[in-house]
User: Which sequence fits this backbone?
C-alpha cells in the first residue's frame, strides 16, 4: 500500500511543480495561440495556413476580435479558396488553381 502511494506521489509531484511554474502568456504568445486556433477551426493547412498565420500575426490586436473588413487581397483569397473547396481540389492542382485565381 505504501509503495503504491509513493509511486503515485512520484507522478503527482512533478505535475504540480510544472503547474506552479507556468507563467502567463505574453501578448505575442497569446496572439499566436489565437491565430493558431482560428486556423485550426477553419481547417487550414499548408501554404494557406502559413499565409493566414502571417497576416493574422501582423494584424493589430487579436484577429478573433477584429471587426475590420477584409482587404481586397484577403477577400480574393477567401473567394479563391472557396472555389477550390467547392471543386474539391487538393495538392498541386489546388496550388495551381489558387495561383491563377489570385493573379486574375
Assistant:
Amino acid at each position: 500500500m505504501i509503495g503504491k502511494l509513493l509511486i503515485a506521489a512520484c507522478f503527482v509531484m512533478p505535475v504540480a511543480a510544472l503547474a506552479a511554474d507556468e507563467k502567463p502568456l505574453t501578448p505575442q504568445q497569446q496572439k499566436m495561440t489565437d491565430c493558431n486556433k482560428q486556423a485550426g477551426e477553419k481547417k487550414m493547412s499548408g501554404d494557406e495556413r502559413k499565409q493566414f498565420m502571417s497576416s493574422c500575426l501582423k494584424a493589430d490586436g487579436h484577429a478573433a476580435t477584429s471587426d475590420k473588413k477584409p482587404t481586397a487581397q484577403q477577400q480574393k483569397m477567401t473567394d479563391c479558396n472557396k472555389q477550390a473547396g467547392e471543386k474539391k481540389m487538393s495538392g498541386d492542382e489546388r496550388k495551381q488553381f489558387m495561383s491563377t485565381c489570385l493573379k486574375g
Notes: Residues 70-104 form one domain. The chain is about 75% helix and 0% strand. Residues 2-21 form the longest helix (20 residues).
